[in-house]
Amino acid sequence: MDIWKILGIEKTDDEDAIKAAYLARLADHHPEEDPDGFMELRSSFEQAMSGREQEEQGPQADPQVLPWMERMEEVYADFGKRIDPEAWKKLLNDPLCIGLETAELVNQAFLRFLMDHHYIPHKVWKLLAEHLAGRKTGPPSARNFRKISSTMC
Q1: Rounded to whole angstroms, how far apart are CA atoms 102 and 104?
Q2: Cα–Cα distance measured from residue 108 to residue 87, given in angstroms and rounded to the nearest whole number
Q3: Could you tell me the pLDDT band of residue 137, with boundaries at 50, 70 and 90?
Q4: Under 8 Å CB-to-CB from 47, ≥6 apart: which residues?
Q5: Cβ contacts of residue 133 below 8 Å, gap of 6+?
Q6: How many domains does the chain have?
Q7: Which domain holds residue 50?
Q8: pLDDT over 50 at 82, yes or no
Q9: Same domain, yes or no, for 74 and 24?
Q10: What is the C-alpha separation between 149 and 153, in angstroms, rounded?
Q11: What is the pLDDT of residue 52?
């Protein structure tokens, strides 16, 4: 299924163009009169919008970092753990966070996560800043985190 052909436009990341194409084609596929056509159109619209959002979010996390990210999301989702510095320390002491080959990947994924999940108590922000401050000559993402966290702490 070519979503762009169904929408009747060339591939684009322009949200307004995608919405306009969807609305223009919607008249041809009324949900009650053409349920299959409507479902196909709606699916194409959602895929086009989803693809646009994924491009905005940047690169996806490296597969070797995904299990660590899942644990990080679990810590954040559980309010008791989210406010507990020990839960974050345990997460930050994972070998992936320390390893030469994986530390930068973890830091980048962590920073992307924190941009949207920043409801963390001051004592945890301070811990995160201290953890990365130990790497004065660390990777660029660590230096960027220090800049960001210094405004939060």
Answers
A1: 6
A2: 20
A3: very low
A4: 3
A5: 146
A6: 2
A7: 3-57
A8: yes
A9: no
A10: 6
A11: 53
Q: Are residues 144 and 90 in the same domain?
A: yes
Tell me, yes or no, whether 92 and 19 share the same domain: no
Q: Which two tokens stand for residue 116?
A: 């949207």
The single residue listed with the structure tokens 């920043």 is 118
- CB burial string 78-106: b at 16+ within 10 A, e below: eeeebebeebbeebbeeebbeeeebbbbb
pTM score above 0.70: no
The CATH number of the domain where 9 resides is what? 1.10.287
Token couple for 119: 């409801």
Residues with Cβ within 8 Å of residue 116, at least 6 apart in sequence: none
CB atoms within 10 A of CB 136: 9
Tokens in use for 82?
A: 């989210």
**Whether residue 118 has pLDDT greater than 90:** no
